[in-house]
Design brief:
This protein is α+β, with helices and mostly antiparallel strands. It has one domain. The chain is built from 2 helices and 5 strands. A 3-stranded antiparallel sheet has the order 3-4-5, with no helix packed on it. Strands 1-2 form a two-stranded antiparallel sheet. Helix 1 (2-20) packs antiparallel against helix 2.
């Protein structure tokens, strides 16, 4: 929905440029094309970030459901690692072979 507002804002900006500037038609279209490209890039960036966040949430859910994850060639499970919710990473428990090791949830499979 916000993207519709952005497109409406670009249309309003075009109208303002049309009536209150001495730019040529070609210059106005160039400005609009650049602004539209910025909006399209923002849409794709937001989709990418949403997919990445969904993937991390799934990895954390799998960890909390006692599944074993593969992170950087190491098997991460709730027996040997603790989830750090602040950094969304897995930290090796003391007394285990992986004590002190940290693996980001985004890098797990």
């Amino acid at each position: 929905m916000r993207y519709l507002y952005a497109v409406a804002l670009i249309a309003a900006l075009y109208a303002v440029m049309h009536f209150f500037t001495e730019m040529t038609h070609r210059q106005k279209l160039s400005v609009m094309a650049v602004l539209l490209a910025v909006v399209v890039a923002a849409v794709f960036y937001n989709r990418h970030v949403d997919e990445q966040q969904a993937y991390v949430r799934q990895m954390i859910l799998n960890f909390n459901q006692h599944y074993t994850l593969e992170c950087g060639g190491v098997e991460v499970s709730d027996r040997n690692f603790t989830l750090s919710t602040g950094t969304l990473s897995f930290i090796g428990n003391e007394g285990t072979p992986h004590a002190g090791e940290i693996y980001p949830a985004a890098e797990c499979e």
